[in-house]
Specification:
Strand content: 35-45%
Shape: elongated
Number of strands: 6
Helix content: 10-25%
Number of helices: 2
Distance between the termini: 30 Å
Largest sheet: 4 strands, antiparallel
Order of helices and strands: HEEEEEEH
Length: 127
């Protein structure tokens, strides 16, 4: 394993810095459709929450009740990065509406690729 890692690192300037964790702050969602319940015109909007997933790790925010199309959370979580993620590995954020009866409903999703951060970590530090 050590030989494979040494071959993957740049030869000049010693070992490169590689991130091991990612800190996520969920601030808000925008442009979500409202899921106000059985009545289509029901005021109040969605009871929205976000599920953040990286690999098999998950974190759920609290529920932003009656949030309309722009819920706010301002919550933080951290994930350990896998040692060798695939090129399409990313942080998946899924916004759901909490249903009091039945299954929760999908409101939206975003995927944040992690490869750009790993690539920046492999570049030599210019100090």
């Amino acid at each position: 394993m050590a030989l494979l890692r040494a071959a993957a690192l740049p030869a000049e300037g010693g070992p490169a810095w590689l991130p091991t964790h990612v800190q996520v702050t969920v601030v808000r969602a925008r442009g979500l459709r409202c899921k106000g319940g059985a009545g289509k015109g029901k005021a109040g909007g969605s009871d929205a929450y976000t599920v953040i997933q990286l690999g098999r790790e998950k974190y759920s925010t609290s529920v932003a009740e009656k949030s309309g199309g722009s819920p706010e959370w301002r919550e933080e979580c951290a994930f350990e990065l896998p040692p060798e993620p695939g090129p399409r590995a990313g942080l998946v954020l899924t916004v759901m509406h909490r249903a009091l009866v039945g299954m929760d409903r999908f409101l939206g999703q975003a995927v944040v690729p992690l490869e750009p951060a790993r690539q920046r970590g492999r570049e030599p530090d210019e100090r």
